[in-house]
Amino acid sequence: MEMKKRISLELSNRKPAEVVELVVDNCRSSDGEVEGLTEEFSELEILSMVNIGLTSLSKLPSLPKLRKLEVSDNTISGGLDTLAEKCPNLTYLNLSGNKIKELSAIEVLQNLKNLTSLDLYSCEVSALEEYRDGVFELLPQLTFLDGYDQEDNEVPDSEADNDDEDEAGPPGVDDDDDDEDDDEDEGSEGEEEEVGLSYLMKDGIQDEEDDGDYVEEEEEDEEEEDEDGGL
């Protein structure tokens, strides 16, 4: 399927300005250039063009909000200088499986000041001696190269998820607090029920005592009337 047609299908009934993520993997670029993608995709943040026959990114439109660009398994060999101008906010770039042979080909990426992660896996340049040290020296803004930082620590699966976990706090803490609160509430309710029951019982006992006193008074009155009558 041609790239233009694939983009039309991905759009469906949406307008280009409504698209935040676009995936057109495994379609075909007829001349090795980006086709069917225009500056109307102004809100695009994630773009994936894996294995579509790209040889160049020179016709990539201006995408000011693009953060992640996947162009692995193509035949791109250079011409990356256009990225800094058209995608200034790019933070992740995957060039794995392309025809990048020399470090000089990626030197222009120095102008991508926000670029923190770069993948060059399976490119010829990755076979060079001192490849990793050379890339990190050439691109000091990078944090991760081919999924690892300079100390060979693997990139987290999702840094956003880690942030959420930090905000959530240690697991179980809040639950314990809630359980304690529930126990306290149940205890309070139990005490209130006991107090209320005791109060009712006391009232019942007092009523019985009052009734008994009343009966005794009636009996005394009757005895006095009998004595008076006998006299």
Automatic annotation (TrEMBL):
<dbReference type="GO" id="GO:0006325">
    <property type="term" value="P:chromatin organization"/>
</dbReference>
<comment type="function">
    <text>Multifunctional protein that is involved in the regulation of many processes.</text>
</comment>
<dbReference type="GO" id="GO:0005737">
    <property type="term" value="C:cytoplasm"/>
</dbReference>
<feature type="compositionally biased region" description="Acidic residues">
    <location>
        <begin position="206"/>
        <end position="231"/>
    </location>
</feature>
<dbReference type="InterPro" id="IPR045081">
    <property type="entry name" value="AN32"/>
</dbReference>
<dbReference type="InterPro" id="IPR032675">
    <property type="entry name" value="LRR_dom_sf"/>
</dbReference>
<dbReference type="GO" id="GO:0042981">
    <property type="term" value="P:regulation of apoptotic process"/>
</dbReference>
<dbReference type="InterPro" id="IPR001611">
    <property type="entry name" value="Leu-rich_rpt"/>
</dbReference>
<keyword id="KW-0433">Leucine-rich repeat</keyword>
<feature type="compositionally biased region" description="Acidic residues">
    <location>
        <begin position="148"/>
        <end position="195"/>
    </location>
</feature>
<keyword id="KW-0143">Chaperone</keyword>
<dbReference type="GO" id="GO:0019212">
    <property type="term" value="F:phosphatase inhibitor activity"/>
</dbReference>
<keyword id="KW-0539">Nucleus</keyword>
<protein>
    <recommendedName>
        <fullName>Acidic leucine-rich nuclear phosphoprotein 32 family member</fullName>
    </recommendedName>
</protein>
<comment type="function">
    <text>Histone chaperone that specifically mediates the genome-wide removal of histone H2A.Z/H2AZ1 from the nucleosome: removes H2A.Z/H2AZ1 from its normal sites of deposition, especially from enhancer and insulator regions. Not involved in deposition of H2A.Z/H2AZ1 in the nucleosome. May stabilize the evicted H2A.Z/H2AZ1-H2B dimer, thus shifting the equilibrium towards dissociation and the off-chromatin state. Inhibits activity of protein phosphatase 2A (PP2A). Does not inhibit protein phosphatase 1. May play a role in cerebellar development and synaptogenesis.</text>
</comment>
<dbReference type="GO" id="GO:0005634">
    <property type="term" value="C:nucleus"/>
</dbReference>
<keyword id="KW-0156">Chromatin regulator</keyword>
<dbReference type="Pfam" id="PF14580">
    <property type="entry name" value="LRR_9"/>
</dbReference>
<keyword id="KW-0677">Repeat</keyword>
<feature type="region of interest" description="Disordered">
    <location>
        <begin position="148"/>
        <end position="231"/>
    </location>
</feature>
<comment type="similarity">
    <text>Belongs to the ANP32 family.</text>
</comment>
<keyword id="KW-0963">Cytoplasm</keyword>
<dbReference type="GO" id="GO:0042393">
    <property type="term" value="F:histone binding"/>
</dbReference>
